[in-house]
């Protein structure tokens, strides 16, 4: 999963975690979904477990007994607490998997805090590192979600070349995983977050994507009312590509081309028509 900071990626992760721990069905994009039920291992570096993560999990109706946190370790020499380095400490993750027994999902958010000495911009380093995660996933039949930030652009810089090129670091971050998803604001409504196909290795990419909103809510924890946020899915699928989601000009150009194609096809089929008739048909077709 890739996207700019503060867009709601972590909330999406926590929702997926919650539904994995319960196996509870949910509606998104007009379809019913259900995830394989089991335990989850979460490596999170930017959010506090007690004050940020757990309230969101409670709001998403998670089973807390099925969630395991594996974030830091104590250095053998320094005796200081530091983030787990998965290039060296992957055995700790495997030990945790065996200890728990029914792990279905691992979420690493964001991956950059846990790569140790892997050089983020070197394809060979990243590809070899990801292959070790792939081998682990295949060995235990586990899904692994990695959270990655997009590149930051200087003020006044030119627009994007393509969405996939905007993911920070080496190209292997997007070339190696089976599926890549972009989480960003909808070009027409910043309150709507869309999950568009960034790059998919197992099927053809399409412009239909899920959308959700982030709403404020409150939970009761230890008899106290705690304010937090929750994810609410939109009933309709959104129609937007990753390139369009990141590039307003690309989105407007795509919308214009759709209108041009419609008018061309309509007049080819029906001949000359009054503008009002064409407009009525255009509105019917969205």
Write a brief caption for the model:
The protein is an alpha/beta fold. It contains 8 helices and 15 strands.
Task: Summarize this structure as a short list of keywords or feature phrases.
286 residues, alpha/beta, 5-stranded antiparallel beta sheet, 4-stranded parallel beta sheet, 15 strands, 29% strand, globular
Order of helices and strands: EHEEEHEEEHEHEEHEEEEEHHH
Largest sheet: 5 strands, antiparallel
Q: How many distinct helices?
A: 8
Total beta strands: 15
Helix content percent band: 25-40%
Task: Determine the mean pLDDT.
Answer: 89
Describe the structure.
The chain has 286 residues and is an alpha/beta fold. Helix content is 35%, strand content 29%. It has eight helices and 15 strands. The strands form five sheets. Strands 11, 12, 13, 14 and 15 form a five-stranded antiparallel sheet that branches. It has a four-stranded parallel sheet with strand order 5-4-8-9, with helices on both faces. Strand 6 (72-74) and strand 7 (81-83) form a beta hairpin. Helix 1 (9-22) crosses helix 2 and helix 3 (86-100) packs parallel to helix 4. It starts with a strand and ends with a helix.
